[in-house]
């Protein structure tokens, strides 16, 4: 088994020499080395990069390089620590395709960690959810990772981009939060209330569940809202509609 950390480490040498390192210290014959390296470079899409210096690679290319270095030693299990955490979206898509390719063509067991639940369900045959180091049976809806900061005398939870939620908390620092989808009020117009959080978003997904309707709304990040079927029909909601999401600071649960 072998581990690829989320911050790729490469030696000050060529891509080829970096990938060959694990084979050399295992005294793998030169002919076999060349064959394995060629195959690994092809899998990660770096066939034309073998003579390039490691410090000339982008973050995404470096991540693909360390995955190739791990693959050439032919591990039965490949551990990937948040493989797309520090790369741009273009390379996120590339790395996800590589993971699928490894599963399909090499049959190596891939175990990876991620904070992106949708990514986990896209790529994995089995998903295990951990919260505070413990396995949980069901992931809460609207579970987000971010940081609590103090701003204008209030505590706010800051997540992707400029999204900030006003919350009730005594602490600051990294934290998971969740928001119950039933605690979010949906409206076409912004209204005055004691609720401190209000965001304009667009409906991207609608799922009917018995007498309830689950909606996914993009406010810069996806949030799930659950309303009754009666309210759904009354509001005449459709995909692409712009709506306001409003919820109280006390609706944000901290973990």
From TrEMBL:
The keyword Transport applies. It comes from marine sediment metagenome. Residues 192-255 form the Mop domain. Pfam families: ABC_tran, TOBE. Signal peptide: none annotated. This is Mop domain-containing protein. InterPro entries: ABC_SmlMolc_Importer (IPR050093), ABC_transporter-like_ATP-bd (IPR003439), Mo/tungstate-bd_C_term_dom (IPR008995), Mop_domain (IPR004606), P-loop_NTPase (IPR027417), Transp-assoc_OB_typ1 (IPR005116). Keywords: Molybdenum, Transport. PANTHER family: SPERMIDINE/PUTRESCINE IMPORT ATP-BINDING PROTEIN POTA (PTHR42781), SPERMIDINE_PUTRESCINE IMPORT ATP-BINDING PROTEIN POTA (PTHR42781:SF4). GO terms for biological process: molybdate ion transport. GO terms for molecular function: ATP binding; ATP hydrolysis activity. The lineage of its organism: unclassified sequences, metagenomes, ecological metagenomes.
């Amino acid at each position: 088994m072998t581990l690829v950390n989320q911050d790729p480490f490469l030696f000050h040498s060529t891509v080829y020499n970096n990938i060959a390192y694990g084979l050399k210290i295992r005294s793998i014959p030169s002919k076999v080395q060349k064959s394995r390296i060629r195959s690994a470079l092809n899998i990660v899409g770096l066939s034309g990069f073998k003579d390039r210096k490691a410090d000339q690679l982008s973050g995404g290319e470096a991540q693909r390089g360390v995955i190739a270095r791990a693959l050439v030693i032919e591990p039965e299990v490949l551990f990937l620590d948040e493989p797309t955490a520090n790369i741009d979206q273009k390379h996120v898509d590339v790395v996800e395709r590589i993971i699928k390719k490894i599963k399909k063509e090499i049959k190596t067991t891939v175990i990876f960690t991620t904070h992106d639940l949708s990514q986990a369900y896209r790529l994995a045959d089995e998903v295990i959810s951990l919260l505070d180091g413990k396995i949980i049976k069901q992931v809460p809806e609207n579970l987000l990772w971010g940081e609590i900061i103090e701003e204008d005398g209030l505590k706010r939870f800051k997540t992707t981009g400029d999204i900030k939620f006003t919350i009730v908390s005594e602490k600051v620092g990294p934290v998971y939060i969740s928001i119950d989808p039933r605690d979010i009020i949906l409206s076409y117009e912004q209204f005055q209330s004691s609720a401190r959080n209000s965001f304009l978003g667009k409906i991207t997904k609608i799922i009917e569940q018995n007498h309830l309707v689950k909606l996914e709304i993009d406010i810069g990040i996806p949030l799930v809202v659950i309303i009754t079927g009666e309210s759904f029909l009354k509001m005449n909601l459709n995909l692409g509609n712009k709506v306001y999401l409003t919820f109280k600071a006390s609706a944000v649960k901290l973990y």
